[in-house]
Amino acid sequence: MPRRSDLRRILLLGSGPIVIGQACEFDYSGTQACKALRDEGFEVVLVNSNPASIMTDPEMADRTYIEPLTPEVVTRVIELERPDALLPTMGGQTALNLAVALAENHTLERFGVELIGADLAAIRKAEDRQLFKQAMERIGVNVCPSGIASSLKEAEDVGEVINSFPRIIRPAFTLGGSGGGIAYNPEEFAAICKSGLDASPVSQILIEKSLLGWKEFELEVMRDLADNVVIVCSIENLDAMGVHTGDSITVAPAQTLTDREYQRLRDQSIAIIREIGVATGGSNIQFAINPDDGEVVVIEMNPRVSRSSALASKATGFPIAKIAARLAVGYTLDEIINDITGKTPACFEPTIDYVVTKIPRFAFEKFKGSPAVLSTAMKSVGEAMAIGRCFEESFQKAMRSLEIGRAGWGCDRQEPELTPTEIERLLRTPSPERIMAVRTAMLAGRSDHDICALSKIDIWFLAKLRHLINIEVTHLYGHKLDELDEECLLCLKQLGYSDRQIAWATGSEELAVRARRELLNIKPIFKTVDTCAAEFSSTTPYHYSTYERPLYRLDSDDQLYKLEPESEVVTDSRSKVMILGGGPNRIGQGIEFDYCCCHASFAAQDQGFVTVMVNSNPETVSTDYDTSDRLYFEPLTLEDVLNVIEAERPNGVIVQFGGQTPLKLAIPLLRWLESSIGQSIGTRIWGTSPESIDQAEDREQFEAILRQLQIRQPRNGLARSEEDARAVAVRIGYPVVVRPSYVLGGRAMEVVFDEQELNRYMAEAVQVEPDHPVLIDQYLENAVEVDVDALCDSDGVVVIGGLMEHIEPAGIHSGDSACCLPTISLGEQALCTIRLWSEALALALKVQGLINLQFAVQRDEAGDEQVFIIEANPRASRTVPFVAKATGVPLARIATRLMAGETLASVGLRDEPQPPLQSVKEAVLPFRRFPGADSVLGPEMRSTGEVMGSASSFGMAFAKAEIAAGEALPIRGTVFLSTHDRDKPALILVAERLIELGFDLTATSGTAQALNQAGLNVQPVLKVHEGRPNIEDLIRSGQIQLVINTPIGRQAAHDDKYLRRAALDYSVPTLTTIAGARAAVEGITALQQQSLSVAALQDIHV
Fold first, then answer.
1. What predicted TM-score, i.e. pTM, was given to this entire model?
2. Which of 283, 232, 321, 317 has its CA nearest to residue 33?
3. Are 845 and 688 in contact (CB under 8 A)?
4. CB neighbour class for 308 (10 Å; exposed up to 12, middle 13-18, buried from 19)
5. What would the pLDDT profile of 489-546 be if each residue is shown by its tens digit?
6. C-alpha to C-alpha distance for 272 and 92, rounded to whole angstroms
7. Mapping DSSP to helix (H, G, I), strand (E, B) and coil, where does residue 820 land?
């Protein structure tokens, strides 16, 4: 069937901010859909609230709205743009739920908008647990014994029918298992059912009999209008049922299925997609198999492109989202040509001749009080993927891709000594550390059957892991490096051992191992991901490294000839630039850096360079095979990056765009490039030199520059021991901010108020980066923080790209603070100082490209503004995409051109861009995912993503940002107030405005007394420990619409934690700073007085 000619304009919904369970894989699918639809001649209207995504670049769609993803806002866009169709399957659960809401309130019908990709009936049938269960019974596919509940009473009735524990609770229409979990007793059952009913937009939960210990599989399936169905990829979870698939180590293709079992899953998948009625596009179907008798049960189906679709696309090279978009507009699979081969149609199922492993990355250390235990609600913040010729190679490459300090699966440090009881507990309890506990158990003499019985990890995987331990014993331990011969080293490399692991085991250095390998001619070769196991030639250079044995050929003269392994990299003499990506997402280093890497590639391609991307993150646009000219799916370690440099011999390497990951490689990479081998390749690091980056990161070198330039900074010191730390803190004066040097995202950063807290910090956190000292700074109370992104060229010309004012005070991590562009409260003198110091520092650090600077502005007793420098980072920062969307100036693209040697004058940027609207960036925090963690903000970053609101006034821009972040401000009701004594004078003004706006106020005794004395009518309420009914009761009974609570000090933080948790559980917006409360009052005022308007980027930046 040819492309539909009755559609002209298609509305695409994004997935909003990066949250746990819905990350940048939907930026990848949305970007692919935009490209595919526009290539087919359709006009694309895009709505998404996330400024850090590539899909919200004005070039990606014809009309781009960075607006909150709510039914009201999307209705307004439909009214303005009048699309013919809505494609809801590319934006995760957010877009799907929005499409359902717009269909059910008849908006789509009213404006004549057709749902394409999946219709309402199919979405309901797959997402509504009751309808799905009935559909499966009709086609004879087993589902788990279960029941549906819409209230706690119904949940108890279902529980009685199931009559056993544990039970699994799954809310309907949610993402990443949000609100669900495993209940082991009646008390947990009641608590999880309640959170599940709250999390489900339709208040519906599925309660299942536990299948804990069963094996879990996923199939990625595609169907077209002609009823052709293809299975794109099978994926097996290494962890058994009970761990969310996003938190499990997964392997593709499935490894432990017999051919008969695989065919049965295939047949059932095809029957399911037909029964549900997903007429066009991709779906993800999850199964459980009983390892004892092979019984198969279907768990659930996503009638959309899912998280696993990105993994399956990268694993096979088959672009699921791009093909799904084309199917949605009328094509059939046999009419679409596979991009990678350029010959085969999309109805050819992909075949892969390698193994792919994905390992998730976690951030439990950021959420103290929340146990590091994995369950059916997803907790991971990112993932790394690796490709190898066997499971062992793929798995070890994935372990070192995670960037958690491991060079592989162990063999890189002293093994931990654990008691048998500790080992058993670690094996029984799913956690990020369990895979390392398997190693400890094996080394302690536990059998594979023992480990399988405790962990439920399939015996096949355990045998592969056991093979690694046996190889270490025979090939590594007790050997010196020069004793390892060609056969021995080749065997280790084929099993994925890194040079660092071999160096550790043989007591040598990593580069010495590299030299030994090269002496013995053991070098990696690069294979191609081609979707067809080399049956057809591939036109797309998408590569992974591996090691192969030479072959021998018997010639006609009966002589054996050695054939060296051949690499599949095609030589290209054009100028090349290599971009090092950011690796797996984590808190502090996310999609913003991937955005910068993509822009570097686009800009370099525009300038005629061949671009080479190296990255290990399957979720991102940077690892799409058509973002760069060449893609290497490799770990970002020195060894793997050098392998690609030797294969590609690029002119330049860009290390400043991928966050801390490539920066940590910059100095070792520079040293290698300066060596005789490196010089023979002729590659250099583009842009600001690694030495300058090091100068800015190194406290002592940076201070010397500041003294020379006479730039003021907070009192500070360096401590390499506990005595040092105590002496420095006394000299500076408490409170102080303490943190390790060389960290991203404020990891292990804290404000400490006295010596006792400092001692505790030094004991707990100083091991974060053992080679570097702890930094101690004066804590600037009530200061406004300012972020600057600036550009500098080789002629020494500096232009500021964006100067942002933070809404939360200094001391809250900049990544967790809302910020606005342009500034709203700073005086001209402070702004002038900031601009002068930014220029001076950019020149002193010899920046060529981007620099990010952070300042604090504090008013002295006379009311005059004093500026302090906090830090300077001569690299891309997480605010770059926001500034680009707010000003219309693509900073990362311009920076790439400056690195290549162009000047700001030749690029055409001479002055600081002036944003046409007031824009606010707001952080999105994942506290709901971490029961037990406190939601108070501090100097350690904990947000996973961001949203943006733009309007003509600050109040409306802030209100829109809060709506987009899921924290919509109330316009009527009761506000609860409880603040520290020092905040009470400032609170009076906020309280006065809230009363003027028509709110009722209630407060704890001390706060109520202070406000009553100021003549304000405030009702007192009991604190949690003072008796009942208390503030927690009011929140839980829906009587509070907004919480303003500023805790300072340990005891208050502990007391208030309960009420903040209650506010979180009941989705009551909570502000933990007075500055945030002031901004909220402006936002509420705007919402009461103005109607919410929307604007496309193409109109804002004409």
1. 0.93
2. 321
3. yes
4. buried
5. 999 999 999 999 999 999 999 999 999 999 999 999 999 998 877 777 777 889 999 9
6. 20
7. strand
